[in-house]
Every structure is written in structure tokens, then in C-alpha cells.
Design goal:
Elements lengths: L44 H7 E7 L7 E2 L10 H5 L2 E9 L5 E4 H5 L10 E3 L5 E11 L4 E6 L20 E6 L7 E12 L7 E5 L11 E3 L5 E8 L6 E5 H6 L4 E7 L2 E2 L6 E2 L2 E7 L4 H25 L13 H5 L9 E5 L5 E4 L1 E7 L5 E7 L2 E7 L6 H6 L1 H9 L5 E4 L2 E7 L5 E6 L5 E9 L4 E10 L2 E9 L4 H11 L3 E2 L2 E4 H8 L13 E5 L3 E5 L3 E5 L11 E11 L2 E14 L2 E11 L7 H11 L10 E3 L2 E8 L9 E10 L4 H13 L2 E2 L3
Helix pairs in contact: 5-9
Length: about 675
Amino acid sequence: MHVLRVIWCHAGASASMLQRLALVLLIGLCGATTAHAASLDPAILPKIQAATFEVVAAKPLNDPLTYEKPLPLELLPFQERNDKYFSIGTAFAIGNNRYVTAGHVLQIGIGSLWAPPALRDASGHVYAIDKIEKYSLQEDFVVFSLAEQPANAAALEVNTSPALNEVVYAVGNALGTGVVIRDGLYTSDTPEDQDGRWKWMRFSAAASPGNSGGPLLDKDGKLIGIVLMKSANENLNYALPIGLILKAPDHLAVMDQRVPYQLDIFDTTQNSIFKEQFALPLSFADFSAAYTKRVNAYTDAQIKLLLGKEPDKLFPHGDGSNRLLHSVARQSSFPGLIVRSSTGDWDVSGKSGQKIPLSSNGYVTAGVAKNNILFHLRKPDNVSASELYGNPALLMEQLAKVGIFQRRVGSESIKITSLGKPASDTIHVDTWQRRWQVRIWTMPYVNVRVVTFSLPVPDGYVTMLRFAPPGHEYDSLADMNVLTDFIDVSYDGTLAQWKDYLKNTALLPAALKDITLDLDYGKHFGYRGKRLSFSFAPTLQKVEQDSMLRLGFGFFEDHGKVVWDVGDVQVLANANDPDQVNVERHVAPSADMDDDFKSEWNKLVHQRHPYDSVAQSDNGQMEIVTTAGASGSSTPTVLYSVGVAVDGTQPQPAMKAKLDLLMQNLHVDDH
């Protein structure tokens, strides 16, 4: 995830939907506000107006989204409702078919779902950009030409030596309301943060996000700077001196800015400088391609550097991974993200929220892990696994029922019920050979892409989701590709769901291809893996379509290599019947593990309570547990706890008989 300096937002509709689940994504429709009248000489106002333009992008013609009801567009202001363009900033003329705006205003068009940026004058005429002539990422400006010159073309006069504490005027033409001029003082200069290579002009004239890229004028109406951003802690705005733009080299795009990079798995930040350049002039499309190519390469380099820092301590390596590698498999159908804590230990993070019911026993549970929205979708019973996995629109229709997708129209929030078909649909295979379905949907009205990584599981899907604004699709994908290696999830479903799921062989993780389930309702349950096998009949526990099988997958060492594999097998009579059998893998603690691990292992090895085959009551259930291990090992490094639990109260002989039935057909081959 790029960490960029704070600048104004300027594009799109309300982003309230993106603030759900504690994820903050600033995508707002921002425009100029009315201010008190300025006192410039009225004679020069027409020239200022003729030289100042609105930067616009044509609204998308098609909307792939479906809403719960017709959009109440009559609630929007007349201008916004009828305008065919989004207003994204301000630009101004400096003569000889050269125009200037903020670099970040132009960048809204890179990877945009809207039409390319253009200029609109006060009469409503729109002018296409011809060539990008100069560009600076760090100084945040762009100089370009137009394909058609305005009939009343005018240029602002320049003053490259403005005086401090003099009156200045911020000019903006946002939302097509005409030129708005607001006055204040040129208060001070402040060095830019990275290396103090130049000084920003600070001024007190009011300026809204719609002013971004607009001119800053002196008391005589001469151009002294370009309005760019607002101070985070003061009621002051920032402008770049116009002299820096004029002196910048012609026909060159320059990127020389520190752009920190982070990944959600740890707090480490890669503080590198994005330093590139390429020749201009170029069309906007060619400029976008050249810029995007370099930004994407920078993203790849930063991820490589981040993961390359102390690789011997990156999960699953290093002492900080030992606790997780020695823990029993986590049994939760809701996904978690493995992250490194401040102590250096790796643990599973993620918090689930409310369960939203769907039809036919389905539900969606949503939650957050760092900057990612996580979902567990339990598919409706009337939807087959192949139908769900093969129909991306069906997935998003279920997730939409959580209410995360909403469109703000005036005072109302309208629920989005479908995102339609995805713009792309590919497969990503993570380090553990799990196959993620990667889909990207578009939300043109807000200029955002929805990126999902979905992992098929027996009862439906586990999904990781992000909203990617323009220009951030690639780094969202790159981040999420990495994060899939750090997703922890168990595989849970009814026996009927398991049968249906296992038919989709192309989507199964490699670990499941080593597992065979022998399911014969009313007669037999059998599980066979490369480390463990067992079976039982209904004399021990019911075997029906609605019986539940939970495979808890964990990370552990296997012959010197860390693998992701089954560490816990639970079979329940059904979701409402607590009767169950449970076979759980345990690993001998390494010397650095704390006493809790060593004490528990000692109990397992010596079959001490609760692993002593003695039944006990716990929360209205009777439980009995013993241990099993690979034969012929006097000093085992792996043991399995084998247990049976039934509802109510049962005598010791009855519980021991059930345990014996389970042990009869249980075999461990895990050295």
C-alpha cells in the first residue's frame, strides 16, 4: 500500500459506503464554496476568467450496477444532476497554448473509469488535452497543450518575486459555477519536507478542493503560484511558486519523491524514493502508460525490498513464528490475517462482525483485518458449489446484502444490490497452493474498482476485498497477492457440501488432493490423509447429509519444510447436535517455547488428564480423550489427541466404549 502525502480529494460521489467496517477511503465530490467578495481591479476580472478553466472528466455513459430502487436523482442539485461532466479541479493558461494544473488533478485520469481529463471554460465549451509538455510528481504540477485553442485565449501575467504579507487571491472554477476569487495573505514560505529543495508558499486565502491546480494571484492579479494542498494542522493553504514551473525542464516528466510503502502483515515501512523520468511531449494516453509502467515497477520493487528485510524472520521463519507453528490448528470458518506484533511474534489477526442471514440457510459474515475487508459466505442450500464458483455476479450479490455497497444521492443512501459482471476474472495460486479467484468490478459513478480475492471453501467462499481508486488497481492486486500467503482459514461444511465442493477439482488446494473422504450416509464415515486416517459407523455417531466436517488447517514443519496442512479433524452429528469426534495434531515444543507448551506436551506424552481416557463433564457434555502417535517411536515429536464428546451425561464405560470404537480404525503415520 502506497503511503502518499495528504492532498485534496477532487473526484466522485459520496464515499460513505467505503467508510463501512472501519475502512477509510477518501473519495469525495469536492467543490468550491462561496466566499466574501475580492477587491481586485474589476477591469482585470474578465482576463482572469478567460485564463482560468475547470478541469473536467465526462461522466460514464453506462452504469453496470443494480440498485434496490430507482435512484432519486431529483434530490441532487440542478447543476450536478444535469452536468455531463465531473469537476475534478482547476487549470489556467500561461500563454503559447500552455496550460497548468496540479499533477494530482491530472493523475485522477490515470486508470480512470471516466473519460480523460479536459478543460471547460466559463461558457461550457470543453477542450481536449493534446500533449503533456512538463510534469513533476514532487512539485505536483503538469504543463500541457490543448488540441483546440479557446477563441478568447488569454494568459495570466507572471510575478516571480511576490512580497510576503501582501494580499493574495486564490482562484477556482469548480463545479462550473464560474470563477470564484477569495482573498487572504501570503503569510510565509516553508521548505518542502523531503530535502528542502524548494519552498512552498503558504497563504490564508480560503480555497476548497475545487481550487486544486488553480492560480494564486498577487494584489495586481499577476500569477505567483499554483494552489495545491491544505495544511494538515493549520488553516493555511499551500502553493508552488510559479517560477519553479517556468524554470522546470521542457519536454520531461520527472518523479523524485519519497513514497513510503507498507504491507499489512507488519509495521515495517519501506522508505524509498520513487525516482524516474521520461521524455515528453506525449498524449495523455501515452503519458499515462509511461507513468503507470514506472509506478508499477516501483510497487514491485518496494514489495520485494519489504519482504527481503530480515527474510529469516518472515513468517513462517524465525523464532517469532514458533508459537504459531506449535499451536493447534485454528478452527474458524472466518478468515484471519497472520501479522507480526510489536514483540516480533506472528499471530492471527482479524475480527468478524454481525452475521447477515441469506435465503436457504445461507449467511454472510464480514469483518476487518488491517486495510482489508474479509468475508465468509455460507452459500444458500439451493445454490450448488459449481454455480457459485462459476458465477462471479452471484458472489457479489450475496456480499452486497451486507450493505457495504451504497450510493449516496442527496440525503438518501441507496443500496447497491449487484455489481454486474467483473471486468476481469483470473486465478492466483498462493505459496500454499491454494487457488484464489481474483475478480475486479467497476463502480464508475465513484471512479473506483472493487478488487476481490475469493477462496472456495466447502460451504461457500472466503473473500478478501479492497476498494481501489484510480491508479491503485495494480498495487492493490500486488499487496493482496502477498497477503494470500498470510490468510488463515479452516474448511468447514456439511457432508453434502463437502461432496459438492470436492467435485470442483480445478479449484481445490493441493493439500486436499491428498485427502480422501468415504461418505456413505447412514452407514459409514471415513477420512484418509497422508498423516492420519480413521473411520466410524453410526454406532459411534450419526453419519448424515447434514453432519458437519471441519478441517482445521495449520502451518507446521514437515521434514524440515513448513507446510500448510490439516491439523485438526472434527466431525459433528450436525450443526445443532453437539455430539462430535475430534482428532487433533500436536507438535513437540522446541527448547525456546514457554512452559505452557511444554506442560501440555508432557500431559500428551504421558497420557495425563485430560488425555487419560477418563470421561469428564464440561458445559453439559461428556468428553473423553486419549492420545495416538506413529508406531515405533519412543520419543515422539508428533502426537494426536483423539476425543469423543456427547450431549448430556454418560457413564465412564459407555464413553470408553465410544472412544475404543474410534481408536479401532485410527492410524497415524506422522513421523
